[in-house]
């Protein structure tokens, strides 16, 4: 969208005494410390109160869906890493699953369990970033560093598994790239123990009980359940409003068919509820990882697939629960080596749409509090 | 040597000491802040310039001095340039009245407190000019916020200082010997007299914090707000307003704001030290002991004076540093308040609290029960008030110290407040349960009490 096509006009008012007042238009972003990337919010302000908010997106558009059309199926995995750059493992799982569905094959059980383990660890890592930056948005400087300290360990483990810390390129159509290295499971268990028993309570103590944190988040940015469903919100933002929808539960995929997930739901619908859901989901993820490590089956990690993947003509839709909600791909194959079309349904994009509704009538300080609580990743919004 | 020369020497020494102290304190504080915060956050902080990174702050200062002097083309040139000066000048000037030790008190003003309060309110003008002159929307909002905030917190700050002044009226020299109301009742607003009132011969460590802990806490909170420190750093809230009124500043002008902020922190801590923590009193800071050791006259007397003053400065700076560390501790711990919560906290919480404190202290000081019982009763009552405020206030009244309103105010305020109601019938604030509506529908709303 070209930004000049949107006309932003500030209203002018005159009260009975002849005092003139004017609304102010404030461009928040794309270079702003806390718009979580390159989101631009055009705020019309009446004093400190937001009258209208227009998010302008597209600053991080990389034409990802078009790139998929020009690359062999396998090469797409490397690109979808960068869509939601805070949860690449989950994106890769999604892409691999989509192509597998298209080809009518299924990954071996061990590979599915490994996918579950790394996905849940990625969820923890992503929520850590979300909560850390949320603290930073509210002015607390310490949580982000504590969160990143723990996230580092997860990234280290990913490096051991895949060779990359961030854009892992670990999933393959039909399985995963390589098996878990020697001693990785013990490291993982140690991390989980330490995280659940030490780091998470520490973080809770710093934020949850804090009077100021409560005052900033409780009752702010209320989304009622009907509205949440109407805006097609998913993930912690939806579950924070009391709707118990989770792709892992409602449309289980991979190893989630064998390991039951308890969806974390809060009824309040405010920023605090969304924060709380993320905290609870981290505990839940730890439980899932422990279970999966216990039950990890043996066997092969990857099905043999031809070097050039040519799925038969057809279309498919697959979705996973990413850290931000339902991430899915709708993929059409025309029988060639390249996907005919791959459309990504990004949770951040859908969740962002409710922002103007939420911000109206709130103060500037709450703009950041609300934006941080719906936890978007601009790479996922713009793709 | 006659008195005039001695006075001039005295003034020069103290003035240079204050100025040097201010400059070095700001530089040391920036280093200390980074280091202390780093250790609280599980990292190292500055590490590479000099041993343990101690040269980082001097390097930063040099870098700031050497930077190009940038100015926005459309800024209001004069206002933009004068603002840092107006912000910084009162900081230096206010340092003059601080009683570092009996000798190092340059301006032994009889009206020290008034002088300090007056100067600390000049800062606002500099901040507002910076916000207005920058021709930047973030700076404007930041400047306006700062103005509102500093003016609001000025009141409870001054009211919190009244407690110790009232105590000095009780401890005035005339009053001690002849405890009738006619001869006492005149307090002192001079810093050195307030400090010496905390060092009675009978009770050398009679710090006013023991009798007025509430005053100390309220003063300290207001000090946080006055200096725009976390959790009251809204004017420069980087997550909302980029850098607030500092957005367009760089180089030396920015450094002046920066030094001014740290100077203000130092002053707030120093005033708290001298009003509530006994100033320079402490082990070793007693002239009687040292002149007994070295003799009262000649070189021995001089040495005694020097050592005595050195101890005084040490204790003063030590207590001040403890308070400064609390500044840093708070910054590493707490999130930031919202603008309206901040104002509510000042007007609905701190100001009534300080007024009640003054009233109660005054009533107790009028009781005809003698000096010592008066002090004890006043101390006990004050501690009780402090504990009630910290632990029981929210439960008793529903008013939270962070600015959540009780229900009856919320309801009456939402009716007439200028805030535009959000469209679609959704409440902008609390979900329906807080407003008393029954929880219905698929998303039944749980009372917030059941949350944890």
List strands and helices in order, with pairings.
The complex is a heterodimer of chains A (383) and B (452).
Chain A: E1 12-14, E2 20-22, E3 24-28, E4 40-46, E5 49-56, H1 64-69, H2 76-80, H3 88-103, H4 109-137, H5 142-162, E6 171-172, E7 175-176, H6 184-207, H7 211-217, H8 225-230, H9 236-239, H10 247-250, H11 271-295, E8 314-322, E9 325-333, E10 339-345, H12 347-352, H13 355-359, H14 364-374, H15 378-382
Antiparallel strand pairs in A: 1-2, 3-4, 4-5, 6-7, 8-9, 9-10
Chain B: H1 3-40, H2 56-66, H3 77-95, H4 112-133, H5 137-171, H6 173-177, H7 191-197, H8 208-211, H9 213-226, H10 238-241, H11 251-276, H12 287-294, H13 298-333, H14 339-366, H15 371-397, H16 407-416
Report on this model:
- The complex is a heterodimer of chains A (383) and B (452).
- By secondary structure, chain A is α+β, with helices and mostly antiparallel strands.
- Chain A has one domain: Cytochrome-c3 Hydrogenase, chain B (Orthogonal Bundle), CATH 1.10.645.
- Chain A is 45% helix and 14% strand.
- Chain A is built from 15 helices and 10 strands.
- In chain A, strands 3-4-5 form a 3-stranded antiparallel sheet. Chain A has a 3-stranded antiparallel sheet with strand order 8-9-10. A two-stranded antiparallel ribbon of chain A has the order 1-2.
- In chain A, helix 3 packs antiparallel against helix 4 and helix 11 packs parallel to helix 14.
- The longest helix of chain A is centred in the first third of the chain and has 29 residues.
- The two termini of chain A are 14 Å apart.
- By secondary structure, chain B is mainly alpha-helical.
- Chain B has one domain.
- Chain B is built from 16 helices and no strands.
- The chains are: A alpha+beta (383), B mainly alpha (452).
């Amino acid at each position: 969208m070209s930004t000049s096509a949107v006309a932003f006009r500030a209203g002018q008012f005159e009260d009975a005494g002849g005092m003139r007042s004017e609304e102010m238009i404030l461009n928040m972003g794309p270079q702003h410390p806390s718009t979580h990337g390159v989101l631009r919010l055009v705020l019309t302000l009446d004093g400190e109160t937001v009258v209208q908010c227009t998010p302008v997106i597209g600053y991080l558009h990389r034409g990802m869906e078009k790139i998929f059309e020009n690359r062999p199926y396998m090469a797409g995995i490397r690109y979808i890493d960068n869509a939601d750059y805070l949860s690449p493992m989950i994106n890769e799982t999604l892409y691999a699953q989509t192509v597998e569905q298209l080809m009518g094959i299924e990954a071996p059980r061990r590979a599915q369990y490994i996918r579950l383990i790394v996905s849940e660890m990625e969820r923890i890592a992503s929520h850590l970033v979300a909560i850390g930056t949320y603290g930073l948005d509210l002015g607390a400087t310490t949580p982000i560093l504590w969160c990143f300290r723990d996230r580092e360990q997860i990234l280290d483990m990913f490096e051991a598994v895949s060779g990359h810390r961030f854009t892992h390129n670990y999933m393959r159509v039909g399985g995963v790239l390589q098996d878990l290295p020697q001693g990785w499971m013990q490291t993982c268990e140690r991390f989980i123990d330490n995280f659940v028993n030490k780091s998470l309570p520490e973080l809770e103590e710093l934020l949850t009980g804090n009077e100021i944190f409560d005052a900033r988040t409780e009752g702010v940015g209320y989304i009622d359940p009907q509205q949440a469903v109407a805006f097609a919100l998913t993930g912690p933002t939806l579950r924070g409003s009391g709707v118990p929808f989770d792709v892992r539960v409602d449309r289980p995929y991979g190893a989630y068919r064998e390991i039951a997930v308890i969806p974390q739901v809060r009824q309040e619908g405010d920023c605090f509820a969304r924060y709380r859901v993320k905290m609870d989901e981290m505990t839940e993820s730890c439980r899932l990882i422990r279970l999966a490590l216990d039950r990890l089956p043996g066997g092969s990690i990857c099905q043999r697939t031809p070097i050039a993947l040519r799925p038969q003509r057809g279309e498919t839709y697959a979705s996973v629960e990413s850290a931000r909600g339902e991430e899915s791909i709708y993929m059409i194959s025309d029988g060639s080596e390249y996907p005919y079309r791959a459309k990504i349904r990004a949770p951040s994009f859908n969740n962002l749409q409710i922002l103007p509704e939420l911000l109206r009538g709130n103060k500037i300080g709450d703009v950041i509090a609300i934006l941080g609580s719906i936890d978007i990743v601009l790479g996922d919004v713009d793709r | 040597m006659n008195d005039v020369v001695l006075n001039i020497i005295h003034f020069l020494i103290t003035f240079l000491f204050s100025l040097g102290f201010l400059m070095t304190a700001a530089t040391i504080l920036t280093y200390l802040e980074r280091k202390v915060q780093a250790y609280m956050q599980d990292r190292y902080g500055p590490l590479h310039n000099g041993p343990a990174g101690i040269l980082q702050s001097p390097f930063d200062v040099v870098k700031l001095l050497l930077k190009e002097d940038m100015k926005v083309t459309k800024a209001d040139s004069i206002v933009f340039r004068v603002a840092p000066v107006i912000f910084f000048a009162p900081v230096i000037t206010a340092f003059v009245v601080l009683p570092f030790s009996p000798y190092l008190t340059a301006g032994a003003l009889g009206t020290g407190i008034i002088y300090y309060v007056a100067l600390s309110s000049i800062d606002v003008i500099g901040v507002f000019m910076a916000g207005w002159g920058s021709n930047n929307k973030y700076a404007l909002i930041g400047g306006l916020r700062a103005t509102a905030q500093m003016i609001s917190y000025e009141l409870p700050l001054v009211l919190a200082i009244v407690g110790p002044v009232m105590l000095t009226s009780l401890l005035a020299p005339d009053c001690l010997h002849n405890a009738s109301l006619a001869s006492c009742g005149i307090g002192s607003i001079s810093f050195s007299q307030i400090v010496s009132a905390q060092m009675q011969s009978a009770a050398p460590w009679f710090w006013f914090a023991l009798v007025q802990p509430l005053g100390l806490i309220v003063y300290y909170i207001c000090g946080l707000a006055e200096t725009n420190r976390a959790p009251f750093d809204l004017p420069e809230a980087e997550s909302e307003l980029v850098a607030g009124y500092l957005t367009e500043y760089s180089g030396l002008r920015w450094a002046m704001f920066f030094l001014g902020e740290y100077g203000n922190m130092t002053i707030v801590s120093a005033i708290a030290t001298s009003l509530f923590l006994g100033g320079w009193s402490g082990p070793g800071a007693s002239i009687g002991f040292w002149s007994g050791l070295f003799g009262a006259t000649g070189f021995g007397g001089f040495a005694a004076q020097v050592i005595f003053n050195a101890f005084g400065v040490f204790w003063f700076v030590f207590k001040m540093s403890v308070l400064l560390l609390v500044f840093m501790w708070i910054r590493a711990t707490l999130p930031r308040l919202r603008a309206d919560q901040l104002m509510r906290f000042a007007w609905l919480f701190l100001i009534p609290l300080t007024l009640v404190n003054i009233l109660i202290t005054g009533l107790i000081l009028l009781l005809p029960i003698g000096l010592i019982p008066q002090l004890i009763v006043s101390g006990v009552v004050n501690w009780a008030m402090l504990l009630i405020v910290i632990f029981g206030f929210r439960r008793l009244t529903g008013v939270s110290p962070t600015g959540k309103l009780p229900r009856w105010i919320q309801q009456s305020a939402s009716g007439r407040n200028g805030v535009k109601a959000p469209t679609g019938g959704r409440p902008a604030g609390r979900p329906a349960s807080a407003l008393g509506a029954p929880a219905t529908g698929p998303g039944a709303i749980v009372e917030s009490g059941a949350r944890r």
